[in-house]
Design brief:
Elements: E1 9-13, H1 18-34, E2 37-44, E3 49-51, E4 56-58, H2 61-81, E5 92-98, H3 102-112, E6 117-121, H4 135-142, E7 146-150
Parallel strand pairs: 1-2, 1-6, 2-5, 6-7
Antiparallel strand pairs: 3-4
Length: 156
């Protein structure tokens, strides 16, 4: 007899590439079906502004807020384009992080939120045959939970 693994907490990693948009649609649909708590993670290069007084780049609340607003707008577009307006967004939380290593940020966030499943896009470039490996490969190899990798649809 097989033991069911309940999926109650899902992390969807998104960078707005074609593959990650498909992962967003798949992850949100799955979360709605399972009534799962969901986090959408957008990890981008560190969000910084130049502070002339300190003569260095610093993360500021204003730059982080602007990026979060932009991510919210783009997610609203994805909800509309994917026909997901009816999804209960009260169980969907946005996490925006400045990260130089996306795979590590995905792993850290998944662990911190104690998710049961990571949903992310996987590009057809590179992948398991590439010498450095892809972000999806690094996450799949090191995650504490299952990872669902979604490819972008082929365009004709």
């Amino acid at each position: 007899m097989h033991k069911r693994v309940p999926i109650k907490r899902i992390l969807i990693a998104i960078d707005f590439s074609d593959a990650s948009r498909e992962a967003f649609y798949a992850g949100i649909s799955l979360a709605a079906t399972l009534n799962a708590e969901t986090w959408v993670l957008h990890a981008s290069e560190p969000i910084r502004a130049f502070d002339f007084a300190k003569k260095r780049y610093v993360e500021t609340a204003e730059t982080i807020e602007r990026v979060e607003e932009g991510v919210h707008r783009r997610l609203d577009e994805l909800y509309a384009e994917g026909g997901l307006e009816a999804v209960d967004r009260r169980k969907v939380h946005l996490v925006v992080r400045g990260a130089t290593r996306a795979a590590q940020e995905i792993l850290d966030t998944a662990k911190a939120k104690d998710v049961d499943l990571i949903v992310m896009g996987s590009s057809q470039d590179g992948g398991f045959d590439s010498p450095m490996g892809s972000t999806a490969e690094r996450v799949a190899r090191r995650a504490h939970c299952s990872v669902f990798c979604v490819r972008a649809r082929a365009t004709a």
